[in-house]
Amino acid sequence: MRKDRGGTVMSEEPASNANPSRRPTFGAFLRSEPTLFPQDQDNEYHAVAAAANGNRRFSNASATPSPARYYFASPSAGYSTSSPSPYLMSPLNQLSPYAKSPWIMPSPLLGGFPGNNGLVGSLIRKEGHVYSLAATGDLLYTGSDSKNIRVWKNFREFSGFKSNSGLVKAIVVAGDRVFTGHQDGKIRVWKKPSKDNRLLDNLSVAPHKRIGSLPTLKDYIKSSVNPKNYVQVRRHSKVLRIKHFDAVSCLSLNQEAGILYSGSWDKTMKVWRLSDSKCLESVDAHDDAINSIASGFDGLVFTGSADGTVKVWRMELHGKGTRHFLIRLLLDQESAVTSLAVSEASGVVYSGSSDGVVNFWTRQKHLSHGGALRGHKLAVLCMAAAGNLVLSGSADKSISVWRRDPVTGAHSWLSVLTGHGGPIKCLAVEQDPTTPGSDNNDEGEENDGRWIVYSGSLDKSVRIWTVSEQMPEMRPYPSPRRSPE
């Protein structure tokens, strides 16, 4: 079943190659330099927000103790508004008892603050645009174009380490190891310091130690002996198939299978075994740059590309390695696919595109197209799913929050989070430790769906928000117009 170009394709068989001429029209979003996203003067979200808040800055430099070079923004510095605009009458502006979260505990930096349901604060270190982040437990990792990976805890810079591999485009944490994907095509592997190395004040730790790269030197040398292991990338240039030769744009972890997936602008997906860091497989997945990869339910992995397609791959064991087979083409459109998110609990796959639209498919209906969500005026650059919520960050500097009804599957538009001064490049979500039913809550109550959201932006800041599945919707979102059967 197929629509004309720009529509949606649902197919059981792989479709023909997409038009290779698409990528130049999306080059700006691939590189995402701040100058490529001029402020849209007609953007209602930001015009109303600026008027309501008087263009106030949310960074409190005067509260920053020397010699720290980062700023923390208190939620009391802004975001409360009496504006009647539905974009700012967010149900997030309500009080909620967030007292135990490691990110919301009273900090010496602020002297304590009330737990607002909405913006909690900001981490700003004027050294580079934030392109990637990963949240794990009480630690937050951020990567930027300064080549630094910063580690934060309780609103403080907890630790940090630097790579010489260029811009940090992706971060994944697996146990005591941290994997980072870089602009120069390298994947670095770092080891967390042990608890014995923590300082007595519990404010910092010994630096993370780089323990290798992917592929490993051993595999690189072993593969280089056989000419069949090389692929032609340019007229007079060949590279090893197990190595990315362009930017590593995305990483995804399949913890159960012990596998790390990497996607690259070289159009390939590579499969790495965590136990020995061996490259099990290199897949020529797309006709243009891979922008997002997501390991999902039922052993499936999803890839989204600048060629406008979303593909579904199934993994099968093949001797001591793996084989991935293309089983579905979920989407084929003119606009580049920029981001993916998978809700394993709900069985829903989401994709964001350069046209600002979020499409989704449901496992319950054999990955049939469920509809489209429209909450942005510019490209969707990142997505995250948690519980019944899905969030999309955009070049329009806003984050849209949606809730999926677990019974009907309908989506409600809950809120638009604004405050960033640049395109939002990365999102991460963790369950609020104070949520009843969470691992860190001993009350044994039923989970009511409260989450902590981290957003990284080209404005060089990371903002921290709280959201809840129980918040009232901003407005009912109409049922999407489905593709013809």
Fold and architecture overview:
The protein is mostly beta strands and 485 residues long. It has a domain at 44-123 and 377-485. Helices cover 5% and strands 44% of the residues. It has three helices and 33 strands. The protein has helices at residues 27-31, 44-53, 217-224, and strands spanning 70-73, 94-95, 116-117, 119-125, 130-136, 139-144, 148-153, 156-162, 168-174, 177-182, 187-191, 209-214, 230-234, 237-240, 248-254, 259-264, 268-273, 278-284, 290-295, 300-305, 309-318, 321-332, 337-343, 348-353, 357-362, 368-374, 380-386, 389-394, 398-404, 411-418, 424-431, 450-457, 461-468. The strands form nine sheets. The protein has a five-stranded antiparallel beta sheet with strand order 1-4-33-32-31, with no helix packed on it. It has a four-stranded antiparallel beta sheet with strand order 5-6-7-8, with no helix packed on it. The chain has a four-stranded antiparallel beta sheet with strand order 9-10-11-12, with no helix packed on it. A hairpin with a 2-residue loop joins strand 27 and strand 28. The longest helix has 10 residues, at 44-53. 46% of the residues are buried. The model is unreliable at 2-117, 441-446 and 476-485 (pLDDT under 50).
